[in-house]
Amino acid sequence: MRVCGTCPSKAKAKRGFVLIVLILIKKIISLFLMMLLGVLLVKTKICKAEDSKVLSALSIYLIMPCMILSAFQISYSEKIRNGLLLAFFAAVVIHVFLILFTSLLSRGLHLDAVEQASVIYSNAGNLVIPLVTAMLGKDWVIYSSAFVSVQLFLLWSHGKALICGEKKPDLKKILTNVNMIAILVGILFFIFQVHLPDAVNDAVDSIGSMIAPIAMLITGMLIAGTSFRRLLSYKKIWLVTALRLFAVPLLVLLFLKYSGIASLAENGKRILLVTLLATITPSASTITQMAQVYGKDADYAGAINVVTTLLCMVTMPLMVALYQM
Q1: Does residue 200 sit in helix, strand or coil?
Q2: Suppose 291 and one of 47, 121, 216, 298 were both cysteines; which one would form an S-S bond, judging by CB atoms 3.0 to 4.6 Å apart?
Q3: What number is the average pLDDT over the span 97-102?
Q4: Residue 304 in contact with residue 241, Cβ under 8 Å?
Q5: Predicted confidence (pLDDT) per residue in 301-324, tens digit
Q6: Which residues are CB-neighbours of 235 under 8 A, at least 6 positions away?
């Protein structure tokens, strides 16, 4: 009887595929439980729903910069450099496409600023690093920082201008934003191999690792402060959810899987899996945090974040499974 030499490798690939999907589901459930703790904090009157604004400020101005710096504290190599360039290229193409795609959609569907931002920007900054760490290992986190860096630049330029109704982004404010400074410093540290002292690096890494729990607590506190009747009263919330969790991920998945760019770097398919994970997360909680900080429609932004966060437990494993097939 003839034995197929590729059978063991196919079986191994299948096991790896199943393992990645199972780890993703487990991690999403873990994040969901963190969100429930945020609900309990408000329901038991330990905190008020409005207290989430303080946590939002902490997340934006302290935790996220630490997370960015920590991600770039790795040893330089040509392999990592090429992988980063691929991840940066994919992130730029995806964001430019999404901005143009959503701009065209908004004309026909009459999407407002919060709805457009919620379709374009994912919750990658809060969720992708713990997901990548759990699924692929800490060595792969650096590639998620490429997507997060591109998204943060656009969030604090295009996204902020969109939400605040600014006609033209203030370049000075963008470049002096603490998150943008963290990105630039992180890239320079990586290129010139500047490593923080152990005690400092440990502190930065510990604070940065709080990003996912804080984000989910904020989401839970917003859920607790919003009645589901009111949450579901927003007429376009399901349209925005469908665009964020189905239309955008499917379009990006087709691009990453069939464009052939994975061949530009070693382990390109897995690097682009990290990019896909960053794209298919729920709407960015930073939009809600921005709306809170700048006095905009935070309730609606929070409602979109809540609904997409709840439903991503189904859509994210589905998209990863389609990519891995």
Answers
A1: helix
A2: 298
A3: 95
A4: yes
A5: 888 988 898 888 889 989 998 998
A6: none
> For the residues 54-69, what does the mean pLDDT come to?
86
DSSP 124-189: HHHHHHHHHHHHT-GGGHHHHHHHHHHHHHHIIIIIHHHHHT-SS--HHHHHTSHHHHHHHHHHHH
- Output the pTM of the full model: 0.83
- Extract the tokens encoding 49: 């729903």
Q: Are 31 and 212 in contact (CB under 8 A)?
A: yes
Would the CA dihedral through 149, 33, 41, 297 be positive or negative? positive
In the DSSP assignment, the letter for residue 49 is G
Q: Which residue has the tokens 């939009």?
A: 287
Kindly report the CA angle at 31 between 242 and 321, in degrees rounded to 5?
55
What lies within 8 Å, CB to CB, of 176 at 6+ separation is: none
- Say how many residues make up the chain: 325
Which candidate, 163, 171, 189, places its Cα nearest to that of 294? Answer: 163
